[in-house]
Write a structure and sequence with these properties.
This protein is α/β, with parallel strands linked by helices and 260 residues long. It is 38% helix and 24% strand. The chain contains nine helices and eleven strands. The chain binds ligand 48F.
Length: 260
């Protein structure tokens, strides 16, 4: 039997984790939120060679996709987004000509695995509690351990720098709300503030999610449900094509903007 050693295990974990952390203090794109839109954005950005980190408050990655609708763990994806399920290798089944279903567990686990294998660094158990703004542009994030937040401990956070930030925090649209409160000037919405999410309308919401995936403040982009909450679109319920397409659009915009 090979002889294992407790201190070697501890050192391995500490050393490897802090290597990962310190390699990602200054990056191309920081994504806040590990739901479907954030994961898809991270997959495409990392595949294009961008240095990218995704921060997720919870221990588990996947956001609102694990539970399908009302904890029935199947998701619906419309025809227009099937090419993304094909890209990730997520299996699906036709319900009719337009609606397709996939196992929610396979969808989250496969998407997460493909994103990490494409090079995305995922830091879970970390929440984003503030932003760094220089001359009217978002240039970074302020992060802390989720247990610090949960316990209400008085512990100062740490800052990281990133050329661009994607708010993929879902319904809560947390990063944009911080900028609304603390940033100088207006958001790039009609009222200059967060317009707020409207009540459920699946078809309209799916189209609008894509339309609303864009820059909302210099350096800050919104994707997924956060895009609709920011620009005043409705929620859509457990249909996920819009989330996947939104993550892809956010990534493509940033890849194009940076010259490929
Ligand atoms: O809510 P979520 O899954 O976002 P999404 O990608 O997808 C929305 C759908 O799941 C569903 C829907 C459509 O069918 O309406 O709700 O837009 O995932 C958001 C993730 O962001 C994390 C949160 O824990 C969740 O996993 N998050 C939120 N705020 C923060 C955060 C924060 N401040 N720091 C880190 N993570």
């Amino acid at each position: 039997m090979t002889k294992i050693h407790e201190v070697a295990i501890t050192k391995a974990i500490i050393g490897r984790y802090f290597r990962k952390l310190s390699d990602h203090l200054d990056m191309d794109v920081a994504i806040v939120g590990g739901g479907p839109s954030g994961l898809v954005a991270g997959y495409f950005l990392s595949s294009a060679g961008k240095k990218c980190t995704l921060y997720e408050r919870k221990l588990s990655i996947g956001g609102g996709m694990w539970g399908g609708g009302m904890l029935f763990n199947e998701i619906v994806v419309q025809k227009d987004a099937l090419r993304l399920l094909d890209e990730f290798g997520i299996r699906y089944e036709a319900y009719d000509d337009i609606h397709f279903t996939a196992d929610a567990i396979e969808a989250v686990s496969t998407l997460t695995s493909r994103a990490v294998q494409a090079g995305l660094t995922v830091l879970n158990g970390i929440c984003v509690e503030d932003v760094v703004i220089r001359e009217g542009t978002i240039t970074g994030l302020v992060i802390n351990w989720s247990p610090v937040e949960m316990a209400g401990l008085h512990v100062d956070p740490l800052a990281i720098h990133s050329k661009r930030v994607i708010d993929a925090t879902g319904h809560a649209v947390e990063v944009v709300r911080i900028v609304e409160k603390k940033g100088s000037g207006r958001l790039l919405t009609l009222s200059g503030k967060v317009e707020g999410e409207k009540s459920l309308w699946a078809e309209r919401a799916e189209d609008l999610t894509l339309e609303n995936t864009r820059e909302v403040y210099p350096g800050l982009y919104v994707a997924g449900m956060a895009a609709n909450a920011t620009f005043g679109g409705p929620r859509m319920g457990p249909i996920f094509g819009g989330m996947l397409l939104s993550g892809e659009k956010a990534a493509r915009m940033l890849i194009e903007e940076s010259g490929g």
